UniProtKB/TrEMBL annotation:
Gene3D superfamilies: Winged helix-like DNA-binding domain superfamily/Winged helix DNA-binding domain. Coiled coil: none annotated. PANTHER family: NEGATIVE TRANSCRIPTION REGULATOR PADR, TRANSCRIPTIONAL REGULATOR YQJI. InterPro entries: Tscrpt_reg_PadR_N, WH-like_DNA-bd_sf, WH_DNA-bd_sf. Pfam families: PadR (PF03551). This is PadR family transcriptional regulator. Residues 7-76 form the Transcription regulator PadR N-terminal domain.
Length: 177
């Protein structure tokens, strides 16, 4: 997710202070990983530099003055372009799990143990997400479903890799020598 375009989208409804942007982001998108204020203000600074937002007003606060940011026409165009452009599917062709399996084989460690440990970790995470999904609202359910589908795909890959481990071992060790 692009933080800049997300902030622009949050500003499109009405101008906001950085604090309000962070709260809106956390309420809609954080899912347990809240946004740091530094990220908000550095992103706003960049958006301001590129003319995508402007400071609409400055108000005194308990500490530093509070700036209220508004999206510009260029910002509306930018967020619209981002929203209508489909994302490229990421095939994860050489992810960390694959790298660990190959390195286990190359170093004489047990790839079976690695795969079993990873399978256990995936199943544990799936149980947590399923509980969260059952206890949460529609947003939690959709976010958890997305994660569960990805974890399910990883589990299928782990099983397939375990089934092909002898062939992979022969291939990897032959290429390494």
């Amino acid at each position: 997710m692009s933080l800049g375009q997300t902030i622009l989208g949050l500003l499109e409804a009405h101008p906001r202070h950085g604090y309000d942007i962070k709260r809106a982001y956390d309420a809609h998108f954080a899912q347990g990983r809240s946004l740091h204020y530094g990220q908000v203000y550095s992103t706003l600074s960049r958006l301001l530099k590129y003319g995508l937002v402007e400071v609409e007003g400055v108000e005194p606060g308990d500490g530093p003055e509070r700036k209220r940011y508004a999206i510009t026409n260029a910002g509306i165009t930018d967020v619209n372009r981002w929203l209508v452009t489909p994302e490229d599917p990421e095939p994860y062709l050489q992810n960390t799990l694959y790298t660990k399996v190959v390195l286990a084989l190359l170093t004489g460690r047990s790839a079976h143990d690695l795969l079993d440990t990873q399978r256990t970790q995936h199943l544990c995470r799936m149980r947590e997400l399923t509980r969260r999904k059952e206890e949460g609202d529609l947003v939690d359910s959709l976010v958890c479903d997305h994660a569960l589908f990805h974890l399910d795909a990883d589990l299928r890959w782990l099983e397939l890799t375990a089934d092909r481990l002898d062939d992979l071992t022969a291939k990897v060790t032959a290429d390494y020598e």
